[in-house]
Design goal:
Length: about 300
């Protein structure tokens, strides 16, 4: 007698939100064993860029590695990557105590360095670890100092988000560390960031209006160690909880909608998820610990 075994992809459904595990980013040897890495999704070309430290790996829309560059470049240690709408690749790197922003062509070949010009003296010591490109602007985020410098595409200073003074009213324990873990910018220019020790997600509008949500706890919709954050074109907000090993979904009004995944080693499980990004097709790419790679889920809404 012939037995047919059918393996179904793990899925989670709640409040009109359905998440399904698809696959892990791979090459011809299998799942690429990434740990906590930086990643960026190119919305125009549906490609995923992953920073490995000394190079950048590029994956196509099917999750297969198609290209890798950077290990022969002399621009320092890679820290972050972003892609402009015309396909140029931006690399944030560090040489000693200095940071560099380099514009590369689609092959990852350096074309020119971007000098940050007209930066006010009080922000001259900024040490960004994150680089975001949105709507022709560059966002250089120093998560430790809680400052985000905004420039145009050529590096000309446009403004700054000085976040630390805005958190004063939330700091219940004077002298405690309130570092930023995850950060992103949506299509409308709103800055979203997470502060694990406050168990909160913050939204900072272009006119510097601050709002927030989040409560400590183990129940769905609450946070233990809030970490990575991403938004999609519909206004939904995705947040990783590193301790609970879930991804929580909130609507544009900050109302909890659903959570998906769980701690484990099976298909679709996560171990201490950290960074995440979302593409236009509703796929969510989540990095995690223990070199388990980047897991890819598809989220659909009724």
């Amino acid at each position: 007698m012939l037995l047919l075994l059918v393996m179904c992809a793990p899925s989670w459904s709640e409040a009109g939100v359905k998440a399904t595990f698809l696959y892990s980013l791979s090459n011809f040897s299998g799942t690429v064993p990434f740990g906590w890495v930086r990643q960026f999704v190119d919305p125009e070309r549906s490609e995923i860029y992953v920073v490995t430290g000394d190079s950048v790996a590029v994956f196509n829309s099917s999750g297969m590695e198609v290209y890798r560059f950077g290990d022969d470049l002399n621009i320092g240690g890679f820290m972050d990557v972003s892609v402009e709408s015309d396909g140029h690749i931006l690399i944030l790197s560090r040489v000693g105590d200095q940071f560099r922003v380099t514009r590369c062509n689609y092959r990852g070949e350096p074309q020119a360095g971007i000098e940050i010009r007209n930066l006010p003296k009080e922000f001259a010591g900024i040490s960004p670890g994150r680089l975001l490109s949105r709507n022709g602007k560059l966002y250089l985020a120093d998560l430790f100092a809680k400052k985000v410098v905004v420039t145009d595409a050529s590096g000309l200073f446009q403004g700054v988000y000085d976040i630390a003074p805005l958190l004063v009213g939330f700091e219940e324990k004077p002298g405690a560390e309130y570092g930023i873990a995850g950060i992103t910018v949506d299509t409308e220019g709103n800055l979203f960031f997470t502060v694990p020790t406050l168990f909160k997600v913050f939204k900072l509008s272009p006119d510097r209006q601050l709002s927030s949500f989040g409560t400590a706890g183990n129940l769905p919709g609450r946070f233990n160690i809030v970490s990575g954050i991403a938004t999609d074109d519909r206004g939904y907000v995705y947040v990783t909880d590193t301790l609970r090993s879930v991804v929580a979904v909130f609507d544009k009004e900050f109302k909890f909608q659903a959570q998906f995944s769980q701690r484990g080693t099976g298909p679709g499980d996560l171990i201490a998820p950290n960074e995440l990004v979302v593409d236009k097709a509703g796929r969510v790419f989540v990095s995690q610990a223990r070199k388990r790679g980047i897991s890819v889920f598809r989220v659909a809404y009724e």
